[in-house]
Design goal:
Length: about 220
């Protein structure tokens, strides 16, 4: 298990913390957690404020292919794939790779990239509908923190079951109490979050032996 920043080459998104803090309410959080049109393509208050393909995941896909030494014919699953941007880019940078995605959002899957039609499946990270050892790598980027802690443990166990030692999980985290405060003001959908040590404990409870990294508010 290793800490590795596979998103190092992803352009940083602009998080307007103050704008969101003012607007955040239990109703807005509940709507965001439905992962529907408002979360992806509605006003920024509910989430992305417009989730559109712009090729920014291409360098990340290149780094993932390199890190896992993926080759044509290898199978990769992106858990929490949303509209399939990373699935599309994995196929772009490694032609012949068998990339698939799974997401809980019907809206995202219905509005996926044309190149990934037939490759994305509706489902939840804590119950992956695939056989043991059926993938060469399983990714879950900014997804697992959206589950309650017990379900997050089930999710990492599932990732391990599908690709033992060949997972990559990136989750919301913080290193200091000050950073945690800023994160709490900003967070919308995460149901569980912790310092890296807390996450490492969760990973180990799920028997996870893959790699991981953190999304931190800067
Ligand atoms: C912050 S987005 C990340 C999307 C993409 N991985 C990325 O990094 O751009 C979180 C995604 O997790 C999905 N999601 C939330 N809960 C989930 C669950 N229990 N199982 C699978 N996907 C889930 C949401 O629908 C959404 O697409």
């Amino acid at each position: 298990m290793a800490e590795v920043n596979l998103l190092a080459r992803l352009p940083k998104g602009k998080r307007n913390i103050n704008a969101r803090t003012e607007a955040k309410s239990p109703e807005i959080i509940a709507i965001s957690r439905q992962y529907g049109e408002l979360y992806f393509d509605g006003p920024r208050t509910y989430g992305y404020g417009g989730y559109r393909y712009d090729g920014r995941w291409i360098p990340v896909a290149e780094d993932i292919v390199k890190h896992f030494n993926l080759k044509p014919g290898d199978r990769v699953l992106d858990v929490g794939c949303a509209k399939g941007f990373l699935v599309k880019d994995l196929m772009k940078v490694c032609p012949g790779i068998e990339a698939f995605g799974l997401d809980i959002s019907e809206y995202a899957l219905r509005h996926c990239e044309p190149e990934v039609v037939g490759r994305l499946q509706l489902g939840s990270a804590d119950k992956l509908p695939f056989p043991d050892k059926s993938f060469d790598a399983v990714l879950a980027i900014n997804t697992i923190h959206n589950l309650e802690r017990a379900d997050a443990i089930r999710a990492v166990r599932e990732i391990e079951r599908l690709a033992p030692g060949r997972g990559f999980i990136q989750v919301d985290s913080y290193r200091t109490p000050e950073q945690r405060e800023v994160f709490l003001e900003w967070v919308l959908t995460a149901k569980f979050h912790d310092y890296p040590d807390g996450w490492l404990k969760l990973f180990s409870e799920g028997g996870y032996t893959g790699d991981y990294f953190w999304t931190m508010v800067e």
